[in-house]
What we know:
The structure holds three protein chains of three kinds.
Chain A: E1 11-20, E2 23-29, E3 32-33, E4 38-42, H1 49-56, E5 66-74, E6 77-78, H2 86-92, E7 93-96, H3 107-117, H4 124-134, H5 138-141, H6 154-167, E8 172-176, H7 184-197, E9 202-206, H8 210-216, E10 219-225, E11 231-238, H9 239-244, H10 249-255
Parallel strand pairs in A: 4-9, 4-10, 7-8, 8-9
Antiparallel strand pairs in A: 1-2, 1-3, 1-5, 5-6, 10-11
Helix pairs in contact in A: 3-4, 3-6, 4-6
Chain B: H1 17-53, H2 59-64, E1 68-69, E2 74-75, H3 78-109, H4 112-127, H5 130-148, H6 159-183, H7 187-194, H8 200-211, H9 213-229, H10 232-237, H11 255-264, H12 272-302
Antiparallel strand pairs in B: 1-2
Helix pairs in contact in B: 1-12, 3-6, 3-9, 4-6, 5-6, 6-9, 7-8, 9-12, 11-12
Chain C: H1 11-53, E1 55-62, H2 79-89, H3 92-101, H4 109-121, E2 123-128, H5 131-136, H6 138-148, E3 153-158, H7 162-166, H8 179-210, H9 215-227, H10 232-246, H11 248-251, H12 266-290, H13 294-302, H14 307-336, H15 339-344, H16 364-372, H17 377-411
Antiparallel strand pairs in C: 1-2, 1-3
Helix pairs in contact in C: 1-17, 2-4, 8-12, 8-14, 8-16, 10-12, 12-14, 13-14, 14-17, 16-17
Amino acid sequence: MQNTQTPEYAIETKNLSIHYGNFTAVKDVTIQIEKQKITAIIGPSGCGKSTLLRAFNRMNDFVPNCRVSGDLLLHGINLYSKEVDPVEVRRKIGMVFQKPNPFPKSIYENIAWGARINGFKGNMDELVENSLRGAALWDEVKDKLQKSAYELSGGQQQRLCIARTIAIQPEIILMDEPASALDPISTLRIEELMQELKKNYTIIIVTHNMQQAARASDYTAMMMINDERAGGVIEFDETKKIFTRPSDKRTEDYVTGRFG
Amino acid sequence: MDNKNFRQFDLKKKPRGFETVVQGLLFLTGILSIFITVTIVYELGKEAMLFFNDPDVTLIKFFTMTRWQPSIGEYGIVALVSATLTTSFIAILISLPLGLASAIFLSEYASLRVRSILKPVLEILAGIPTVVYGYFALLFVTPILKLIFSGSQMQTYNMLSAGLVMGIMILPLIASMSEDALSAVPRALREGAYAMGATKLETSLQVVVPAALSGIGAAVIVGISRAVGETMIVAIAAGAGPNFSFNPLDAAETMTGHIARISGGDLSYNTIDYTSLFAIALMLFLVTLVLNLISQWVVNRFRERYE
Amino acid sequence: MNQKQDYFPEGHAFYSALRRRYLIAGVWQTIFFSALLIAIISLMALLYDVVNGAFGYIAYEYKNDPSEYTSTPISELTKEELLSILKENLSSGAYNKLNNEQPMETRSQGELYVLFLKGLLQVDTKQTWDLTDSLLRGAEIRAEAAEKYPDAQLEFRSWLTPQFLTTPMSSKAEFAGVRTAVLGSLWLVGIAIIFALPVGVGSAVYLQEYAPKNWLTAIIQTNINNLAGVPSIVYGMLGLALFVRTMESITSGAAFGITDSNGRTVLSAGLTMGILVLPLMIINAQEAIKAVPDSLRQAAYGVGATRLQTVWSHVLPNALPGILTGSILAISRTLGETAPLIVVGASTFVTIDPSSPFSKFTALPIQIYNWTTRPQSEFHAIAASAIIVLLVLLLTLNATAILLRNRFQRKY
Lengths: 260, 307, 412
């Protein structure tokens, strides 16, 4: 049904395919990510979830031989068109990685550095504090901002990585299995944090943990590989529906644990 | 199943004489390296002690006199150390920035194809014997320098020419060690920086290089150690007489060049000329030992940084 | 945090800032590349300099007029004619000395011709020019030579010839060759490798396969790493004190009945070089052994092999390419080092090929050093030629190493 005003999505793909040389890793993905919601991408290992996620902020540019066809639209602009600068894309679309990777700098500098290179003018102390609060880390580190980031625990480091990502005010935050390297308690804290973050940011998260996807996300995209070993989104819907009444049999098999 | 084809199978420990002998021999070869160090210290120390025990030689004279000619009672090692310092300083001034910059280019910017062409060039530079560099310094670089500095008091033998060529010689060493350090920085760190909208340069200079700093520091220290110990370039191009000077345009003799010159001529054992050489050699050994130990400490101390 | 504070440049401001960032990035990239370029240019300058010096015009005179000896053009003299000229005109002492070294009749025509030029005509080089000069300013040089040295002959000479390799040392640059030096270097390599290869591989095997991880092993390892960084001249001093002096009875051959030599023999020098390259060999062999996958060892132990059997039959063969590469590096080092040889007492003037470990010796880099530091330009020319010989030797060695390494690597 056509509205006179189609709701603007945070970001959407149209027939997005990712190729490595002659091999197609991800084929024909068309999904629309809702603003300020959490969208989870799930599927068995090797089905291209991370590859698809990395296409959103053009991190695949660093892989030699990687080619993208189709459209990735942010505010109607195809992010893969020639005029678009990947550096700016990555400012607008931040990323948190699977294994926490803070810089070998102080906690303060980890956040300040990203802000500085993006031309931040203003009170840096205030920005650092706000970012750390936004990542639910401020109380734990406020007295040791000058200490090395490596002195933090794994869960704290990951929250620091989230803090530095939100410091540069992105619109979308991509998360590539952000809690898989952490213990269950830290994992829970990250999930709570995500619920807070979605008030201001759109979140796309890749996870192999189905319970996490069921708990934490609003929408879910189910990916699987086809016969040519290309991954594709076989079902994309509200999380409630995917996990209770999925339309595709393969989705049902996966979420009920019959495989994967 | 019949065990007639195999030895008796009784699970007892068997004496393996041959094995033990071989293991003993191998242990000896392992110990040999310590033996070599001990011998170096002993032989150098023995003669150096003879030098220092000479009634005319005092430590004060050793460190404060500015002329070195033991046969006539002048024992100021600074006359030689000044040249070693000057030439090494010039060498590092050249090789550190150029070597580090080359390493950054090779590690961060060069494509695999470009790297496979350029890295061998550096390895060739590193493999050229130092006597060839000496030829180059005396017969190519010095005439050019004389043209550039024409008019001022520049002699054919000078420390600048030797220092410059030493720098070229050390450049590949610093470059390859630094490049190893840069390549060892985990990819995740770079990706973290890119994901924040950083350009390649910002990532390289502000994230990768600081992360590799310990390896780069070790490279520099090793470079200094090489410069201090280098003999042929300075023996050929820097000068043939001790001269307490820090002016690169002057001729002077380094510690190593002096040893080469004196031992290459008529030298009788048990003269003060002979024993003084060992005093210099002992100092060289100690200095390079300390430098190498520091570089290993630097690498080990900072290795955990990005784990 | 609900309000988006206006701290970051957006839109147009962002793009202009971004352009500036890219500009700076471009500048730095050029700087980094230039550094590498400087290294490449230096290498090319060095090679150019060496090749330049080994070829060019030479203006020379004969001190004695050839017509005093014969009316035939000297290049057409036959062996018999040369023999008789030499016999008549050389002093009996000089002639007998040459005859004792090698009977005159057995010498080739070329050798006798050289003796004629050297001993009787006595070549005197007036001036030499390098290759670029000779090629670019040929006419000028001819005019200059005609003017300055009217009696001299001018010819284009390649100082690097096959004869250069086969002629022994001589005090006159025009007749000197590197044969004695190359042979001396080969002797050094032989002795050094005979010592360093088994000891080096043995140490590496011990450290990697047998040694327990305790403080002693750590000290040995640190010690080896430090020895690798000791200046080569210090090794020379060690060799001087230990082999030349303390062990003189062995190294001079006195213990074996040789009476007229001292400790400054090729044996002393070879052992010194052996000790010098030992740390290198150990470290290389260690790397090669470390690279052998542990699964191979586990497999051998799993069928009940002893440690020695495992090492000998499985680990070492697998590590062989790396050990080979290490040996070639050690050989390269031995060929190129000069300082320790000076200290241990390489003679700069031996005309007789080394015949035993107790011979006096010279080596290629020593000759280069000696000839480079002479004032006459003709010595610089043969220094350049000797450098080319040395570099070609090293290049061949290293190319062989790379070839071998690639060939062995493909097997696994």
